[in-house]
Structures are given as structure tokens and as C-alpha cells.
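Protocol step 6 of 9: fold each sequence in the batch and record its C-alpha cells directly after the sequence line. For illustration, a two-sequence batch is reproduced in full.

Sequence one:
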Amino acid sequence: MSVPGPDPPETRRGLVGPFTGRHLATTLVVVLAAALVLAVATQPLAAPGSTPPPVDPRATQYLVGSAGEGLRVGDRAPELEIAGPDGSPAPLRNLAGNPVRLTDLRGRPVWLNFWASWCPPCQAETPTIRDAAAAYAPQGLEVIGISVQEATEDDVRAYAERYDLGYTVAADLAGDVFRRYRVFGLPTQYFLDGDGIIRSIVQGPVTLESAASNLALIGLEPPADGPVSSPELAP
């Protein structure tokens, strides 16, 4: 006579397969906790509703020396002289070989721009200077671009021709004028009144708006139509 064995254990049906409601609830709590930790870890530190500060895309001045005390507003601008073949002072010459003298420009406002063809901030502002020089020429503005630390004058000439620079360009290959003006960064701008007195100095590139503000300090009015900004230089 056989003895019946014990009854098999009762099988419980879960909500999802073998998982009970308690299993599912525990899993959900773990997932929510992990999500909360992740949200806190990745939350920006800025206050809610605040916007990040805008990024200024403009190029900055390219330093070529130690910043120090140089010329000041109110000083008379030194003459644009270089060392001649015999070591005596000689006038800086433009790309056509003609002397460039500030004394010859008395009575006219002058914008001196120290720059270099290899200098990124100088390249960025080239269209601005070109457009401003043309727009203010009827008022007598003389723009003089003095290129420094170049290998040859031909490099400067190629740059001026490539971008159709209609203002005066000169190559200060030995850096004589550069040192007289105690320039320590490129570009550097000097705005002179008709008496040759420095009325404004800008360390770095200019925009059309900042150029207009500085030109107003040497007696120039914004053109009626305003200069139109050129597109960036092609590579």
C-alpha cells in the first residue's frame, strides 16, 4: 500500500511572470533613485533661468613684447623715421618708395595702424580699415599702415595687393618706427589730430563702430551712409 507524498508547494502567480508586485515596486524605487542621482550630478551650477555670458568672437591683440609704458594721449607723435644706409635718420617710405612724413600731413587727421601680414587679429581687421579709410577719405583722413616684423617688403606688397588696400602702406622691416612708438602688441592704433597730437590709442583690433568713435576724437563725422563692412578675408 503506497503512502501518499506531501502536497507540492503552492505556485504563486506574479504580476509579470514570476515577479510579484513587491519585486516590481522595489525595482522601480531603485531606478528612480539612480535617475535622481544622475540628474543632480549633471545639473548645471548656474542658477535656474540664468543665461551663460556671451562669448566674444573678436580677435585680441597679438603680443610681441612686454607691455610697458609707451606713448600717451596728448603726446606729439614721433616722426616716422628709420635708420638710413649711413645710420642717420631717414624717412619711412611707402611701398611705392615715396617718403611718409607726419610733418607733411599737418592739418589732416591721421590714423596710424601697426600691423603684420602674419598676425591673425591684424588680418581680421583689414576689411574694417580698408572700408573706413575709403569712407572717411573725403574728410581728409590719412590712414598709414605700418607693417612690422616682416621677412621682405615683397611680402607686405603681396598682402596689400591681394586685399586691394587703398591707403598708405609702409614696411618697417628693421622695426625702427616700431621701437620709437614703443609698440608691444599687434595691431596697435594711434589716432592723431591735425597738429600731430595723439588723441586716442587702441591696443588691439577695431570694429567699424569703435573706429568711428575714435575718429570722432580727431574731428571726423560719421559718413552719411556709413561704411559697409566687407566680408572676411578669403584664405
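Sequence two, same batch, same settings:
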Amino acid sequence: MKLHNFFAELKRRNVYKVAVAYAVVAWLLVQVATQVFPFFEIPNWAVRLVVLLLILGFPIALVIAWAFEATQEGIKRTEVADAMPVSAAIGRKKHAWIYVVVIAAAISVTLFFLGRYTAGNKSVASAPNELPTKSIAVLPFDNLSRDPDNAYFAEGVQDEILTRLAKVADLKVISRTSTQRFKSAPADLREIAKQLGVTHILEGSVQKAGDSVRVNVQLINALTDVHLWADTYDRKLTDIFAIESEIAKNVAENLKARLNGRAEEVLAARPTENPEAHELYLKGRYFWNRRSTASLRKAGDYFQKAIDLDPKYALAYAGLADVHSLVPVYAGTAPQDDVPKALAAARKAVELDDRLAESHTSLGNALVSSVQLKAAEAEFRRALELNPNYATAHQWLAECLFGQGRFSESLAENERAHELDPLSLIINASYASSLAGAGRYEEAVKQARKTLDLDPELVPGHEISTKRSSNIARQMS
């Protein structure tokens, strides 16, 4: 068949008409999928499936148009239809396809511009906030227990929910050192959200009595003050990990975070089966977070007691390593007394669970204390693979890079740490140090002043942190 005759045959068999009609209707369906599916919270894979099926269907439609013809007696093969007498009824309907195309085109164009208009309005409305949708701060949980000493337990529950969420790579999660500045039920959530750079706030309370615990939580869109989800958990104390896992998973699902197999595993993790060891660990972290000589030593005692009850408790070893790494910095003791203990505890933590970001971060910090910076860097980077939201790992990696004279890389890590923990005194001070190292002295001075504005009384603590990286550099030179 000659090329000219082939195109003429395509026209005679209405293949052109089918191609145009199919393209217009397919475009309409794509517009429906992209504009309407999100409204009903239909996942994106469904939109992609519609597009893929429409693409695959196009050549099939053309083949069918070539091989078959619509007649009064139904669909017939083209050869059979050609042998049939011409029908007046069919002739009157031969332009029906044009109406289909025009109507479909009008609807699809309307949906297209409607989608662009609403998207434009959304972008204009959200521009002043510029806050990521999948972002959250977990505020301190109220301690409703009669015993005020149980404050460590409420703080621990908050911290562990936050830690589980932070390991979901699809979320931005603010670190506890920034959230600790706000009480559990503050008056102005919108202002707090702006300070922390998040859209959502999780509030809660914990009541512990004997071997029972009650945890109340509520998830709020702080920018709109809309309550997205709330629940109350009444369980045995031995179920605390299950409670924390359920809360973290519900929050992640409400924020529409992508949960791969690793994220599901992290959310459901049980670091120990011994509830008493867990309580001792929470007490250890409670005192470690206070960062004084006395509190660090008390934290070390609690971590060791937790290890005595559960020798396979990786987090307790990581906590003990953190204590021995920081005691020389805060107490001014000889590093040779504590650094070997820090290395031994951290290596044990990694040996017990090499998929814990905390274990690798503790080992990295212990290696920094022994001035093994290249090895420390590898541990910090592994920790951040496991938990990209771990602000302390970013900060300590920044100080490790600073000690190697890699100032621009150090600054990038401290910028990320500051984004994740904007109100941390230590991170703000370390950030100022990185700015100075990168030669941005005016910004460094401004950042140092911001740090002083956060808490002028803790300046000595800032100095301890900011001098640490420069001390490392001097030891390496």
C-alpha cells in the first residue's frame, strides 16, 4: 500500500477522529485525576496509574479504530461494514464525535485553569508562612502524677515519641532542647510554631500510678488551630513502648508522611523488655539533659544501673558513653580517665544495635574526644543516615569538621542543626563559631548576640561548647 493510500485509508476508517477524541478525553481524565483525586485524599500512585493506563490505551484505541466500525447492527469488522449498505441513520450520527471532543475539551480546559487558579491562591496564602507541611514540634508533656518526681517519666515519654518521629525521614521534627522552653499547653501556638519553624504541634500529658499509665495526646495544626487528631491511652506500664509507637504512627499518618519498611520498624521498636531498666534510663537522660557536673555524674549512675538490669540495653550504653565524653568538658577532669570508658561504652552500644542513630552518634563523640576525627565523621554520617533529624549529630559533625579545617562543611551542618533545634543554646553557640570559621564575622557576631539573648546566664556553658571545636583543631595541628 502506498503512503498516500495509507493515510487515505486512515481517514476513511475514522482513525484520525478516534485519535483526536481519545487525546481530548484522555486529557480530561488526567485533569480529573490531578485536580479531584487529592481532594478525596486518593494517593498519588492512583494518579500515576491513570496516566499510565491512558498512555497504554492510545495505540490499542487506534488498532481497534482501524479494525472495527460502528454500524446500526453494532460493532463490525471494517471489511464487513464496508460490504453493508450505507445507512442514513449512521450518516446523521457521523458528526457525533465532534460534540464529544468539544464537550470534553471544554471540561478539561475548565479543570486545568481551575486547578491553576486554586494552586495559585494556595501558594499566595502559604507564602507568608513558608513552613513545611510535614513538620512538627512535640511540646513537653504535663506530669499529672501525684508524685512530682515522676517529671522525668513525662519528659521521657515526650522525648521517645519525638525520637521515633525524628527517624521518619519524610518529617521535619524539632529537637527537645528547643521545645522544652514551652509549657505543654501554651496560649499562642501560632507564635510558637513560627519560632520553631513548624506547622504542627503535639501536646500531651502523662499520669503514672503504680504499674499503670495514662497518656493523653492531641495533634494540632498551629497555623489554623484545627485539631487533627486526639486520643487517650490507658495501659499497663509494661506497654509504654506500644503506646509511644501507636502515637508516633498516628501522627506520621495524619501528617501523610511516607512510611517505608525501616520507618515502620523504628516506630515499633522496643529498646528493652525490662520496664525497671527503662525507668532508670529515662532518669539518666533527664539528668544528662541538664548538663552540669553533678547532673552528668548522676546520669552516669542511672545509666549504669539500667545496664546492670539489662546488659543488652544499647541506649543505656550510648547514654553512659555520652556522660564519659562530656564530663571532661564540663568538669574539667583529665580526658584519659573518661575517654576510654566513653569509647568502650559506645562501641558496646553499636555492637548491640548498629541501627541506632544514638549509638553511632555516641561513638562519634567519643572518637572526637580521643581526636580520631576521620573515624568520628564516619560514625556521625552513619547516624544521620539512620536519623536525618538528629540535631545533636549534625552539631557534633559540624564540630568534627571544624576541627579538620573544613569550615564551609561545618557551617552547613550547623545550619541544619539550628533548623532542627532553633532554641538550643549550645547549637546556637556552635553555629556562631562555624560562621566565624567560614569568615562570615558580622553574621557570627549577630548569631552570638542571639545566643546571649536566649539566656545570658548560661554564657559559660556556651563558651565550653564553642571552644570545643577550636580545641580539637589545636590538638590536630
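Proceed to step 7 once all outputs are recorded. Observation for sequence two: The longest strand covers residues 226-236.
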